[in-house]
Amino acid sequence: MHQSPAHGESAFNKLELLLVVLVMVVVVSVILPSPARGPTRSKRIECLNNLKQIGTAYRIWENDRDFMMPARESVSNGGWQEILAMPDQGAICWTNYKIIADELGHLPKILCCSSDERRPAADFATSFDNTHISYFVGVSAGDDAPQSILGGDRNLSPGNTPDPGYGFSPRSGKGNDVAVPISGPVCWSLKMHSVGNPAGGGNILLGDGSTQQTSSAHFQSMWLSNAPPTTNWPAGHVPASPSIRLIFP
Questions:
Q1: Is residue 144 situated within a structural domain?
Q2: Of 222, 219, 244, which Cα lies nearest the Cα of 139?
């Protein structure tokens, strides 16, 4: 006489079925980004790509000019070094980017992050100013100092508590010329890529043309603390502690 197989041998019991469902849920959650984080992460990567293109434009520009960035090159050779010998040049931060317009392919869109409330200019000739720029300029950076800070998200702010606005970069577009101590403290404000991240975070462009996504804490401990201090300060405006000079749009 043939005996019927036991139920446990022919089909999943309830516990096994529950385990399978749980495994499937975990797998799906790993593969598929959550709706809340997906678009935010995509915009941050897009912004990082903008900085990479800006870094490439800088390197193309400097290859024809004794390997000097616009901020370190004479006005007679297309740069703005002599202008930066004067303090408080934040209002003309846009000058730096207009200088490399050819190398940027005359695409102002590259200079504006999609996570920023600012929007790209129509062109570099008629409507271009600070209000169409999302990135600060490190005026003493260059590929002779790979760890120097050449650019980054404009919403950097002083202190350890993220600013609710745009930090050093005023909404007005009047810009800001800032001495940032390499000992800090600084952090990204709650705008742009810090949305939903109370500790702050942003993107930076280094002197060798490479880019980094970083948290505020890591930026301060790793990148800022290792950046070569600016030495060519305007007369009478040398900061008391080792600092880098950043021009904010």
A1: yes
A2: 244
Total count of domains within the chain: 1
CA distances from 151 to 90, 127, 186, 247 (A): 14, 22, 15, 9
Mean pLDDT split into 10-residue runs, the chain, 249 residues:
49 57 48 46 88 97 88 94 97 97 97 96 94 98 94 96 94 97 95 82 96 95 96 96 98
Model pTM score:
0.83
64 CB-contact burial (10 Å; exposed 0-12 / middle 13-18 / buried 19+): exposed
Q: Is residue 68 included in any domain, yes or no?
A: yes
Name residue, tokens 């880098």. Answer: 244
In a domain, 23, yes or no: no
The verdict on residue 5 lying in a domain is no
| Cα 174 from Cα 183, distance rounded (Å) | 26
